[in-house]
Amino acid sequence: MKKMTNPFKGSDNVGGLNVQDGRLVNDREDGETGIAQAARLRGQKKKQYKIDCIADGIERAEMRKNMDRFDRYDY
Question: Residue 21: CB partners within 8 Å, gap ≥ 6?
Answer without folding.
Answer: none
